């Protein structure tokens, strides 16, 4: 069965999580398994990406437990999900290697690695599933483990942040369940492809598409909460500050993007199929726009708020983690902006460019922001603080780390030849093509704000003369290097206070205060950002394919089930479901005998 | 349960009778679960209520000493929480393994099969469903995780 590759990443991640649980008492083996599992996950995703590319239809479908859609759960790998999976795989591998050094023995005893891989399981499932309820389940898997990981530091701040994060997301989950229940009651199906098919021809199935609009708006709230878009952003700074650096990297780089993916998948592939004329003041939505005529302006307002207010918030932050967290809010605005423009644009070409822009920006932000969080984590590991007033002069004591940070920061700003340049270019391109001067102005203002806060971070933390803590850490690192390894195995180099008295030694003899493995992880992401920027074509092609796949509802429905795409179920409506399940059950029992 | 207020004889006797009944019901639900109301989850919850009853009436230490430590294989482990976490991880592995096992027969993940054995004396027809392995995994996950929570929170 060739389509087994579809479920391979999911099984690899789940298997790794279970193995990490079983090897709790052998920390060394657990660390090795965790990294090997993350490596195997990358391989699994790579094989899947290749398989999807070679498939003539560009879509691979896997029927879990051999039950056909629309009743069974199907997993679908198409260019859109594989692009996001590839991002997830890269970030999660780097963060897994980083975790081995960063999370100490005590952290490992608390099942860090098992939780980490369970979070990856949730991400993978959410990206692959073709069933709305199953999407909810994977969101929960992802969130359950992230709750614990946010609370991981177990101090009062982390507990408060985790409580806030958990309560908000539980509220979100309740709303999501409500919306999904409503969608099931209205359309009579949970399968995304089947839902798209029914919405495309509501009269044939006896569906009233009007309630679906409200329900999908409710669902949108949940996805935007996960993505941290402006009115739902308040959990972001605290949670990102509290979580360990590699977890923050995955939360900002991958988990957020699952929210973006869900918006693209459900709104552009599924709900866009419904022929419903929505008229809002100032928006002339024809029937060809459907639901998206409503979601376009909504997304636009939220994207604008995120980009501007997030950027303003980032300028004023006292610490690096807070700055990067607000920057995440601002950058998610840049991802949502082309989606908003694409939603209101009727021309298919503009729509494709808009979604491609959002996807390229997601990849850029996923890599760059993970890099920045990892770099700040490495600096904190060495210095013991991320407050801008405590930092300064990092270029002198940690040159490689600073270089990596600079590349990530420049990619965020959008300097050629980095990936970020093309990402920003595509956002502007979308606005210009759609003839949306307002969107262009917002993007421009957001870009200027990005430059402002990135410059502030760089000037305060990396340039200038080293602050006293930096100085102390540098001295400690040098004396430490004389008599042994600077950082004990898995331990934190919190030696800043011990060696405060000897500050004043010659800094030039110190190569780097940061842990080499942590720096190496950061550097690998920087190299990737440069490489993807210089060789941008493959990424652009992948994003365009993904955008085309997201917009081709018909092919999506056909891939999931040739039968349901071909013949319309005669009895129609939401009432036929139970009967069909009963029939399938009878058939299954008959086979067994 | 504080030291000065011992549970009454009635409560202790009732518990002693009820706990095996709960355990039996749990096992019945577990075995029937794949195509009748029941299943690994509810069986696990029921089993945990039996344990919780014992904890409340006989106290944490008695249960640990008499049940967990002296009961054969589990006695090898250092504490009840350890064996509960092990049950949790083992259950997860079992459920996962039962799903992957299906892939060895070239059918998708989690595909289940069922075999009917006829003509068993007295009992008649017996049904062997592969879903039972998955249910058993779920059962251990539920029992392991709930008992960990009860043991840890109860100790506080």
UniProtKB/TrEMBL annotation, chain A:
It comes from Haloglomus irregulare. It is found in: Cell membrane. The chain crosses the membrane at residues 6-23, 32-52, 72-98, 110-129, 135-153, 165-185, 205-225, 266-283, 289-312, 324-347, 353-376, 397-415, 435-454. This is Na+/H+ antiporter subunit D. It comes from the Archaea. Keywords: Cell membrane, Membrane, Transmembrane, Transmembrane helix. It is a multi-pass membrane protein. GO terms for molecular function: NADH dehydrogenase (ubiquinone) activity. One of its GO terms (cellular component) is plasma membrane. InterPro entries: CPA3_Na-H_Antiporter_D, NADH_UbQ_OxRdtase, ND/Mrp_TM. Its main location: membrane. The keyword Ribosomal protein does not apply. Residues 130-271, 297-449 form the NADH:quinone oxidoreductase/Mrp antiporter transmembrane domain. Pfam families: Proton_antipo_M. GO terms for biological process: ATP synthesis coupled electron transport.
Automatic annotation (TrEMBL), chain B:
InterPro entries: CPA3_antiporter_subunitB, MnhB. Pfam families: MnhB. It is found in: Cell membrane. Residues 10-147 form the Na+/H+ antiporter MnhB subunit-related protein domain. It is a multi-pass membrane protein. Keywords: Cell membrane, Membrane, Transmembrane, Transmembrane helix. The chain crosses the membrane at residues 9-31, 37-58, 87-111, 131-153. GO terms for cellular component: plasma membrane. This is Sodium:proton antiporter. It comes from Haloglomus irregulare.
